[in-house]
Amino acid sequence: MINVHKPVLLDEVLEALNIHADGFYIDGTFGRGGHSYEIIKRLGSKGRLLAFDKDPDAVRSVGNKLMQDERFEIVNGSFTMLMQHIKGNEIEEQVSGILFDFGVSSPQLDDAQRGFSFRFDAPLDMRMNPSEGQTVAEWLNHAKETEIANVIYKYGEERASRRIAKTIVNTRVENPITTTRQLADLVRRVIPPRKNGKKSGDIHPATKTFQALRIYINRELEEIREVLPQAVNVLCSGGRLVAISFHSLEDRIVKRFMRDQSTPKKYPSELPIMPDISDIQLKLIGKKIRATKQEIDKNTRSRSATLRVAERFTP
Domain 10-104+222-312 adopts which CATH fold? Predict the structure, then answer.
């Protein structure tokens, strides 16, 4: 039996997708298949599941049983290829539901050699696809100080971003920053222990910096902005868009997109014109969903997860 990692909010995701046995579904972030394995269990012989993941390790993790299932297909690439892949394969039917589980996966964090976590001393990489683009170390040792500061502040919301950037630039002159331990120790030296009564070890000082660099090097927020309109375009009427975010930057994009696509165009109140609903493409389904205490006790990563659901609306 395949030991599949159980992802966050699994039961809530399956309910939100409102799965039909003969539907066509997309898992935009396969990870280690936790969602996909459960989705395909609920599909009949005519159902289909298309998955995306730009991490080659995730694709290699697909078990033989799922890989040999004619209802399943996985693409080794970014979910921003969604529209391109569907059109390129002349897939005629519209999609019944799309799931996105944004951010880094637990297996990626737990693999020391991927360089995502300061828990291990490893090469400072952080690329979702290790065969594409530059590593964090390569960028960090050549970028301008202002650019580094802006990235750490914009994507990590780190108030000490300028001091961190200055220290990085001064340090790399004689000692290029190439490992996670080097960067984590550098940030710890820049940011003093918190004085709010909590233990300084509760949240590592480098948490926001690592988050920022990972988001930047992988274009995570840009890709979310790119894929959401694509998702709406391929959904059938009544099809569900389900998105899990793990920090405010991701959730803000999802929340605003769903809000904007579900709000009718308004005119000045003095004009005797009814709101224009012709441009509405989504209908919000419920409020945001957070993990239960029981799930958080079993999986602390679920503590920061936010699930939002919308349905394709046809005026």
Answer: Rossmann fold (3.40.50)
